[in-house]
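User: Run a structure prediction on this.
Assistant: Running it now.
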Amino acid sequence: GARPIDQHLQGLAAMGADIEVREGYVHASAARLCGSRISFDMPTVGGTENLLMAAALADGETVLENAAREPEIVALAELLQRMGVPIEGAGTSTIRIEGQDALSGAEVRVIPDRIEAGTWLIAAAATGGEVRVTSCRPDHIEVLLEKLIQAGCQIDVDETRIELSAPERLQPCDIRTAPFPGFPTDLQAQWMSLMAVADGATEIIETIFENRFMHVPELMRMGAQIRVTGNVAVVRGPNRLSGAPVMATDLRASAGLVIAALAASGTTEILRIYHLERGYERLDAKLRALGADVELFVRDATVAHVNAAQAAEDRRTT
């Protein structure tokens, strides 16, 4: 879907940046940014992060209102705090930042990927299996855990571990994507694959991105019964999914197709897995460790070489 940067630019302009858009490129300059009170039109993760960093070296205090509350915002704020920036309210809708003349070095441990953790849990649920996810943060995906329990899964957690056991029959469970702490849009495609094998009808409402149902036709190739009206998809299960050639359209859609393939009979070929590799490290190796039959291969190396040669020629003639 669309990824507008208007909230970024409006915030930077409010802090004193001179911004001009010419022929689709943003030209920005400022001797030094000044602290300001900025109210976002809607919570934006990237916008909050961008202005949080800008405010760290701005002159004076900056207040971000209607800010995003995702765990990644909190993690960034903690890093900036360790670098010497006083920050209050990270993880709430109002963040106060006292700009500094310079930052110091700091050491930080990157937080676990909550979307990858959620993907593993949904995959185990869809295949009727069990999984233990370690080195994770259950408090970052509480809404997903609640939905999995409603679907019939047994879940046991501690501070850094989640264990899931799938039921014999999955129950349908509606979701509505929303900014944190709501259900993540980045788990919507995976949840749709899960509900395709659940026993009943499920309503999935996408409120974040206007074009994030592109995986629906691919799931339907595999036998899923899905009807889309606007931003609402109704999935009717249980479906006997079967392998088919499908195409990944984005990062999370590709994860959803992998989950559907694991739950399907026969062989599924998923094209354009570069989407998948952008967000999941060694997914094929981890799946094989869990017993899945997964193989990565280059379908046509000749075409890849020809395309690479053409790209080089294009660069020479530009």
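The longest helix spans residues 301-317.
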